[in-house]
Amino acid sequence: MEILRAIAESLERGDHEQVRRLTRQALAGGTPAAEILHEALLAGMNVASDRFRRHEIFLPDVLLAARALYAGLEVVKPLLGQENVSTLGKVVLGTVQGDLHDIGKNLVGVMLTGAGFAVVDLGHDVSSERFVDAALAENASVIGMSALLTTTMPRMREVVHLLEQRGLRGRIKTIVGGAPVSAEFARAIGADAYGYDAANAVLRVRALLGIRGSG
Amino acid sequence: MRTIIQFSARETLPEPAAVLHRQNLPEGAAPSPRVRELLHSAFDLYAALAAPQGIWEEIKATDFARVYQGEGRNAIESPLAEIFPSADSLALFAATTGDAASTRPGELFQQGELALGVMLDAVVSEAADRLAGLLADCYSGMLISTGRASEDTRVLPYAPGYCGWDMSGQAQLFAYLRPEEIGITLNNSFLMRPLKSVSGVLIAGPAGIHCFRPAYSFCVECKERECLERMAFALRRKHSRHQREV
After folding, report:
1. Is A174 within 8 Å of A162 (Cβ atoms)?
2. Per-residue confidence at A83, pLDDT binned at 50, 70, 90?
């Protein structure tokens, strides 16, 4: 449908005002909210994410696209509940206790939302218990942890241990990331995945949940 | 000697290329017109919000040894432990871009201004790093003007949280320097508020003392490798990085 393609293309360009206007127009024309979400908004965001992964565009361009995605989501969201639309899965995200840096974690949240996941952002300075309690309360499949400081990285191990102690390791997967974190560190603490940047984190979460395709 | 310096926002403005590089734009990449527009908006915001200031206070090597020891959590071997005993002079320092510039990126992000929030965050982070260099220049200028520096003297900043100096060293550093006077505080996790603040020690001495082989235990995990750049910089640098008159 022409209007869905126009929404997707406006989103890729990061034109949030045009996305908002066209989304309203599509709804007024009778296009179901779920169709707009999947065929225009998430499709456009997927193209932007793919171009980002191929280094054709850069982080600020992706964030402009994400802002446009959110502009469209604001319009369709109130209608999605009525149409009973499902997400790819739920991810609880946060920056670990003792760490106040959350821009990297926020980027992961944006990219996951753009890929079709439901994201519960716990913010920064999140205790290990709170990660696990929130994942249980939200029935989340994945806990994502971010750290910018080497001194706060051990908190990630605490969360993995806590999941083990409560017998939740099989049910709730963990992914870690942040400037000082590495794949080796993730393996050493028993995390299920390591995302080296926000786009890579989306791929890893998809893989953890057995979702096929690049998304 | 204890000195407090207020800088203009303009003095601390970073290079556009450094801001873009912080967001993973490769060197030489041409940003799109929308990204250039964002960059200008972020610079304008920074200029309006920033209240950069710094403080430094000289410290004897014997006193710094106690500050460096902190809570005993440093790496067993570290470059700083080998460098500071050879220094001609040392000064503890702290600097901040101010509270408004530190908190605005997060607020923008919460308001859905994702790209501008991240761009401003990169501008403020780069500016904070630049502040450490400016303070090093000021300290260097003081040493030159008082006849305490030679042609070969180089001043470089070293900070807790890097190269084996544990973050817990901040507690001793703050107890000695008292940067609360310029609005910088420390929390229980040794993190500074405002978030975009820097602290550490300025080490003055012959260029050679700043050079070491990056083969310490923590170097294996290090992704930054900024030490190589710093050493090259120390070896080629004259007195002032930013050519600032003091």
Report:
1. no
2. low
